[in-house]
């Protein structure tokens, strides 16, 4: 076996994988948000759920799950916990009893005032235009992957 035939030389490194770069960046975001969210007693998933409700209050569980890319069986425990914390309420839609509507309480809306609108743009070290391009690129990547998976179903 020649040195160039080495299996290790031909194998890509973990750092060469785009999926690992995205995964590890997600972990870094989680660590950056953690101290602030810990102070409020929220997880990152609870945080983005509240942000989605700030964007559009009084949503169905289904539409909220689509927006967050979460299945109902994952989202429901999050909603129950946020309801127990007094940040949102769930109720059956009077027009369609099969639908459950989710809306923020006063306490849920007040989280904005407590600094839950935290923004870690500065921590990324990216200039505003670089940040916008990166965010759009990642959204495009996600949408392409989702579309690809739908085409193969």
From TrEMBL:
The keyword Transcription applies. It comes from Paraburkholderia pallida. InterPro entries: HTH_MarR-typ (IPR000835), MarR/SlyA-like (IPR039422), Transc_reg_Sar_Rot_HTH (IPR055166), WH-like_DNA-bd_sf (IPR036388), WH_DNA-bd_sf (IPR036390). One of its GO terms (biological process) is response to stress. PANTHER family: ORGANIC HYDROPEROXIDE RESISTANCE TRANSCRIPTIONAL REGULATOR (PTHR33164:SF5), TRANSCRIPTIONAL REGULATOR, MARR FAMILY (PTHR33164). The keyword Amino-acid biosynthesis does not apply. It is found in: Cytoplasm. Keywords: Cytoplasm, DNA-binding, Transcription, Transcription regulation. Residues 15-143 form the HTH marR-type domain. Its main location: cytoplasm. GO terms for cellular component: cytoplasm. GO terms for molecular function: DNA binding; DNA-binding transcription factor activity. This is MarR family transcriptional regulator.
């Amino acid at each position: 076996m020649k040195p160039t035939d080495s299996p290790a030389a031909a194998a890509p490194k973990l750092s060469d994988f785009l999926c690992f770069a995205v995964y590890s960046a997600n972990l870094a975001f989680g660590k950056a948000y953690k101290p602030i969210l810990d102070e409020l007693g929220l997880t990152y998933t609870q945080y983005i759920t509240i942000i989605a409700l700030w964007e559009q209050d009084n949503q169905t569980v289904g539409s909220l799950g689509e927006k967050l890319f979460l299945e109902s069986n994952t989202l429901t425990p999050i909603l129950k916990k946020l309801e127990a914390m007094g940040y949102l309420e769930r109720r059956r839609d009077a027009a369609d009893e099969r639908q459950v509507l989710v809306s923020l309480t006063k306490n849920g809306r007040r989280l904005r005032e407590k600094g839950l609108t935290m923004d870690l743009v500065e921590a990324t070290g990216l200039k505003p235009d670089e940040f916008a391009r990166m965010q759009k690129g990642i959204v495009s990547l996600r949408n392409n992957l989702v579309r690809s998976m739908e085409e193969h179903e």
